[in-house]
Amino acid sequence: MDADGGRDGDADSGRGDGSRRALIIGGSMAGLFSALLLRRRGWEVALYERSPVPLTGRGAGIMTHPELLRAIAAVGLDAERGLGVPIAERVLLDADGAVVARRPRPQVSTSWNRLFELLGGAFDAALGADTYRLGKDLVRVEQDNDRVVAHFSDATTAVGDLLVGADGLRSAVRAQYLPELRPSYAGYVAWRGLLDERAAVAALGEELFSQFSFSLPPGEQFLGYPVAGPGNDLREGHRSWNIVWYRPADEATELSRLLTDAAGHPHELSIPPPLIDPAVVAEMRAAADRLLPPPFRAAVARIEQPFLQPIYDVESPSLAFGRAVLVGDAAFVVRPHVGAGIVKAAEDAAALAECLDAAPTLAAGLARHEAQRIAAGRQFVAQTRRLGRYLKYRFASEEERARAALHAAPERVLEETASLEFLQ
Known about the structure:
The protein is an alpha/beta fold.
């Protein structure tokens, strides 16, 4: 039965109580923040995630900021308790492993999975686990003056007053309203991975394991820091060490090879870690032996399943489309250098809830939200582009090389990485 007959496939179309209903497309960070913050403003909320299985077990490490702690507190969670691993200092190693720069910088490192667990628990408590729908792949959006309808690949529909596109880099909502806009490849990839604490300490030593540490091979950047271990375990001896290694990769000649699996099947935008060609992983390990300081190369050799993240930018020229709106990576994809993707997603969600609450009409609220968050998104993208300027092997001119070198200086790397001070 279609939506007009009283169903969205899960009996969600009719309310009859005059409440405002939001359809959240995408069940990751931006979707959860949006759902929780709109719910606190009195909206009825349902969330739809394309993955048929829960979004758990992701290994990415995250450096936290005061802005993230405030966002967590805004949804009613204790942001200070059990979030991650405290780090006191940043260090930069030369090719031989000697520390050549230091910077005191108290910060807490956490993980994507830890934040997802916190937000998911808050979602279940506030809205009920059955309100988070898995296996809901959006096909198209229809709307008129009174409602918006989401159509899913399983032939179900959902009806609401507002549709929030929080569906990430591959956003189906963005693809419908901005079909010409494609992710723009930055010219480099990030190798990422996790190593258990015992193996990491054997490679690094206890002091280096506990720090936020860097290395700068020519045209590249390597960094590592401690995070919670499996099951978000924060006990000493049970944590993990998270790495990110930025390496240039030409789009025309190399990226497609990196994204082609061992069976010869090409993947668009990204590739699942188990499908990465073993020959590509072997090349990466060989490069580590040539380019990284001894402690880092020993750690990389011990990582069982590295994964590959091509780096992209997305800048949406518009965020509001009638009753639909983009937030998080669906709106702007920000390179990882400032550790701001989740902060921006949370601030997008907070601005959306506040603007809708303060405006006399939905259209006015979405227009206000768009004006605020386009400006913010452009600021984030511009800063991360500046920080990534030196991640290349060849430069078009000496002027370009000189501009890039400003952000490649050891002191600047320690100051600017995973920092939101540029917003002040």
